[in-house]
Structures are given as structure tokens and as C-alpha cells.
Amino acid sequence: MDPGALTRQLKALQELGLVERNTSERDNRVTHVTLSAPGREVVERALPIRSAFLQDVLANVPESTMHDLSKGLAQLEAGIADAVARTQPDAETA
Q: Which candidate among 8, 49, 74, 78 keeps its CA 20 to 30 Å from the CA of 26?
């Protein structure tokens, strides 16, 4: 997500009263974002619904499939990390 899109999303959540944004006293380029009390209530209400949905979705997925998926995602993550590392300047040449 690009910074502009993130800022717009946070602004909308702030206008709804779900998050609070505060500029860091140490570095004014940093903004701290926290859930407000109403935001915490929304999350607390949503978590059981989310959990029930995920259980329903995964009810018919065999454990072996979940294992294979997890292994495949780990391989994908490692491949991404390797590709990113190859695009970074070598520390010795810097």
C-alpha cells in the first residue's frame, strides 16, 4: 500500500472515531496510530465473527492440504526474501 493510500484510510478511520493519530514528539515525520475505545469495541465484536467465518471456510479443508499450503507459502516467502536480497546493494561495495 502506498503512503498516500494509507494516509487516506487512516484519515477515514479517524473521522469515524475508530483510531487516534498523534505526531511523535521525537520525530515529527512519525505518526503513532492507536485504536480508540470505540475502535477497540469494533475489533472485540468482530473477532468472534471472523473466527467463526474462518472455521466455516476451513471446515472441509484436510489437514494435509493445510500443511502443504503452509509449506508452499514458506517457500514463496523465502523466494521473495532471496529476490529482495539480490536487489539490495552489497554491503561490501557500499
A: 8
